[in-house]
Amino acid sequence: MLASLAAFIMLTTGCVFTQSTVKISFKPPISTDKVSVDKIIVVQNLNDLRGGDPFLLSYKGVGMKTSGTYVTEKQVAAILTEAIKETLTNLNYKVSVDHGDLLLAGDLLKLDSTPIMGFWSGDLDCTIQIDLKLTDTKTNKLLWSDTLTGFNKETGLQIDSESHREITTEAAMDDLMQKLATSASFKSAVQNYASP
């Protein structure tokens, strides 16, 4: 009984009342399904619609705002924007920072990273949700839009730590970018675009 209580306290609190920095790194999904397009996509920085601290990854433990925080080195929306650029570039899309035929813009809607208690140990879920829109840069015509969600769960954890938050967040990002990379409707919208 004491062991399960100790595990509960460790997982749900971690090191409370402190701010810990989590370094998030991303490697684009490996894909042999490269595209062949000559259209240039400008990827705009995502807007963070979560409100509050743009560096906030999550609150520690059970999520109380008094329990300390996990933050990222760069703004979360900027990390996701870079992941989108790297994913598209890896798939052979032509990506630019300013001039292009198409504009990919969107919003960070949600990033939830929550520990879930079990009897001896717990799980850590991470959900990332973004809303993306692809438009013609000349006419502003909407060509494609979708809401994509990345998810990951790490199991059997006995303490809430930076390393666990890093692992589960990176895996949720991988899942999210894989969904963009395999989106047939996005690929079709880019390939079928005809400049006015």
Describe the protein's architecture and organization.
With 196 residues, the protein is of the alpha/beta class. The chain has a domain at 37-50 and 75-191: Lipoprotein like domain (Double Stranded RNA Binding Domain), CATH 3.30.160. It has helices at residues 2-13, 76-90, 162-181, 184-191, and strands at residues 19-22, 40-43, 47-48, 56-59, 69-72, 94-96, 102-117, 122-136, 142-157. The strands form 2 sheets. Strands 2, 3, 6, 7, 8 and 9 form a 6-stranded mixed β-sheet that branches. A hairpin with a 4-residue loop joins strand 7 (102-117) and strand 8. Helix 2 packs across helix 3 (162-181). The longest helix is centred in the last third of the chain and has 20 residues, at 162-181. The protein is elongated, with a radius of gyration of 19 Å. The N and C termini lie far apart (70 Å). 27% of the residues are buried.
Descriptive keywords:
alpha/beta; Double Stranded RNA Binding Domain; 6-stranded mixed β-sheet; 3-stranded mixed β-sheet; 4 helices; 9 strands; elongated
CATH architecture of the domain at 37-50 and 75-191, by name, is 2-Layer Sandwich
The total strand number stands at 9
Integer-rounded radius of gyration: 19 Å
Q: Roughly how much helix do the residues carry, as a percent range?
A: 25-40%
Q: What ranges have pLDDT less than 50 throughout 5 or more consecutive residues?
A: 1-15
What's the order of the H and E elements?
A: HEEEEEHEEEEHH
The CATH superfamily of the domain at 37-50 and 75-191 turns out to be: Lipoprotein like domain
Q: Which fold name corresponds to the CATH topology of the domain at 37-50 and 75-191?
A: Double Stranded RNA Binding Domain
What gap, in angstroms, lies between the N and C termini? 70 Å
Overall pLDDT confidence: 85
Task: Please state the overall shape, judged from the principal axes of the Cα atoms.
Answer: elongated
Strand content: 25-35%
By DSSP (H or I, 4+ residues per run), the number of helices equals 4
Structural class: alpha/beta
Main sheet summary: 6 strands, mixed
CATH class placement of the domain at 37-50 and 75-191:
Alpha Beta
